Every structure is written in C-alpha cells, then in structure tokens.
UniProtKB/TrEMBL annotation:
Family annotation (InterPro entries): IrrE_HExxH (IPR010359), Rad_response_metalloprotease (IPR052345)
Domain of life according to the entry: Bacteria
Domain IrrE N-terminal-like: 52-165
Protein name: Zn-dependent peptidase ImmA (M78 family)
Signal peptide: none
Gene3D superfamilies according to UniProt: 1.10.10.2910
Length: 171
C-alpha cells in the first residue's frame, strides 16, 4: 500500500523538476516529458482510458469524446498507474468508469484509489490551491469558489470538492 504522503511527494517532485509552479498543470506535457505517449481514441462506454506498457512503449490512451476535464483527470490517473503500479513486464491498466460499483476490498480498487490520489495531487497541488484561494473574492459562496477553482485548475467541480475535502478544507 502506498502512503498518501508518498503520492503527494512524487507529484511535487515532478512539478518541481519540470518547473511547473501554477495552475493549470499542463498534464499532457508532463506525461510526454516523462517519456510516455498519449493517444486519443474512441472506446466503449465503460472505458475512459488505459495505460499500456509493452517492451519500450509506454502509452496512455484516453477517450477523445469525453470532456477536457475528464480527459485531463484520466491522463493523470493513468500516469499514477505508470509511476506506482507498472512493472517492467507487459502491463495494461484500464480505467473503467463503472469500477466504482465493485467491491472496494480488492487490490484493484486500492490501486485505483492510489491512481486517483496521484491525479488529484498533480492536477491540484496543495500549494497551488492555497495560492489560488488567497486570490478568490471573499464574497463568493462555497459553490462559486469551488467552480472558480475548478475552472482555474481545469478539473471538474466534483474533483475539486474531493481535493479540498481531502486537504482539510471545511466545505
């Protein structure tokens, strides 16, 4: 099991190495700079994307018909699988939007949660969120603030809400 602090640290290391210091994080550039290829295509209804590692090819495929924010999260999620779960063998990780309905006690669910945590950490770094919150109009409602932050970070409002909650913000 990978600790959240280790996931957060890995995301911070990558952003520091690539000199990324503000939102939105250019996730496609991050992935390419780490030696992976991104391909966009059309998949079945239940697949948002997948990671394929075979020989010397590391490919993240993402569903082209999904929204930009969903594609960004899927790409970051698959990068999490690459960094934390991929071995040197031939691997494939498929992000299935229905996966959340299955039993959370399986190892696969743990890996999905870890990949989601990494996606949140790299797309919405705590420091970047803190900086952006300082710039918010203090007259905004919580819902308006979440929407504004989601727009700045190019993530969904749901993803931003989860991230803020996990960082300890009282929403």
């Amino acid at each position: 099991m990978i600790k959240i602090k280790d996931i957060e640290r890995k995301a911070q290391e990558i952003l520091l190495q690539l000199k990324i210091n503000k939102a939105p994080v250019p996730i496609e550039e991050v992935v390419v700079s780490l030696g992976l290829v991104i391909d966009k295509g059309i998949f079945g209804d239940t697949i948002s994307g997948f990671l394929l590692t075979k020989e010397n090819v590391n490919l993240i495929a993402v569903k082209s018909t999904e929204s930009e924010v969903r594609q960004r999260f899927t790409i970051a999620h698959e990068l999490g699988h690459f960094l934390f779960h991929s071995t040197n063998k031939d691997d494939i990780f498929i992000s299935n939007v229905l996966f959340r309905n299955e039993s959370s006690s399986t190892g696969e669910i743990r890996m999905e949660r870890e990949a989601n945590s990494f996606a949140a950490a790299i797309l919405m770094p705590a420091k970047f969120i803190n900086d952006e919150i300082q710039n918010l109009n203090n007259k905004l409602t919580v819902e308006e603030a979440i929407k504004d932050l989601a727009d700045v970070f190019k993530v969904s409002e749901v993803a931003m809400t989860y991230r803020l909650t996990n960082l300890g913000y009282n929403i």
